[in-house]
From TrEMBL:
<dbReference type="InterPro" id="IPR032675">
    <property type="entry name" value="LRR_dom_sf"/>
</dbReference>
<protein>
    <submittedName>
        <fullName>Uncharacterized protein</fullName>
    </submittedName>
</protein>
């Protein structure tokens, strides 16, 4: 149905949202069905008119990465790209051969896979799932050379954790991640536990933060929020839940510029 609609419609759609999760069984091979839709979606007329593309696929590792990389690079008006890739096997690389290169892209969301390359000079907002190990360092730091991810222009970062992040301290990996992006103004954690140590790293790294939203803050020191004093521009601060044996205290003198606290 999706392929037929893409093939026959004459309407100039600028926003396309496709969920290509075929079959009740998560391991059902769906290569042919997905390929049929992809072949229609990535024709020139669609590539030239799409402004927003939300694409969800159940795929095997590295399937369609070449086609998807080429298509994204040819979308001259693309502003928002949302990719959700459900893996069909447990053997899934943290980084794929997927390359996200686009001159107009403003907002990128990736779930289920981290692109091997992100090169979008207009990119301002990034949402991703944070991994539990540090194999990604070679892609971000690239052994002292230019990183495979171009992050200097970003203004907003949203990190999603999921159930696997419960009781995991990702401070070590996040510390490396922070070094590339000191210019962030908005930082959000969704379904993710932030330890007191990680909060300190964030406050020391992202000194330009204006908005900081935490899902769960894990701490034992009631004065843990003192680290916020290192954020002179902080305007909005929120915590959905607190895990720990003590109640936190936020003194007005810590964040004199704070306007909203949730």
């Amino acid at each position: 149905d999706a392929a037929s609609m893409l093939k026959h419609t004459q309407r100039p759609y600028h926003k396309v949202h496709l969920h290509l999760f075929f079959g009740a069984n998560a391991l059902t091979p769906v290569d042919d069905e997905v390929a049929t839709v992809i072949s229609e979606l990535f024709k020139p007329r669609w590539l030239q008119q799409l402004v927003v593309l939300k694409l969800g696929m159940r795929v095997y590792p590295e399937k369609f990465t070449v086609e998807l990389s080429d298509a994204v690079a040819k979308m001259d008006h693309l502003q928002e790209l949302d990719l959700s890739l459900m893996r069909c096997t447990k053997d899934w690389p943290l980084f794929s051969q997927l390359k996200v290169k686009n001159a107009t892209l403003d907002k990128l969301k990736v779930h289920g896979v981290w692109p091997g390359v992100i090169d979008c000079p207009n990119l301002r907002s990034l949402e991703l799932e944070f991994p539990l190990h540090n194999k990604y360092k070679q892609y971000l730091l690239h052994q002292g050379e230019e990183p495979c991810w171009s992050m200097k222009q970003l203004q907003e970062l949203c990190i999603r954790g999921g159930s696997r992040s419960v009781n995991k301290d990702l401070s070590t990996g996040m510390e490396q991640f922070c070094k590339l992006m000191p210019q962030f103004k908005r930082l959000y954690f969704d379904d993710f536990i932030v330890s007191e140590r990680l909060l300190r790293i964030i406050c020391e790294s992202f000194v330009h933060l204006e908005s900081l939203m935490l899902h769960i803050l894990k701490m034992d020191d009631p004065n843990a929020l003192r680290h916020l004093e290192k954020l002179p521009n902080l305007r909005d601060f929120g915590i959905w839940d607190i895990a720990g044996a003590t109640q936190c205290r936020l003194l007005p003198s810590v964040c004199p510029s704070l306007k909203s606290c949730y």
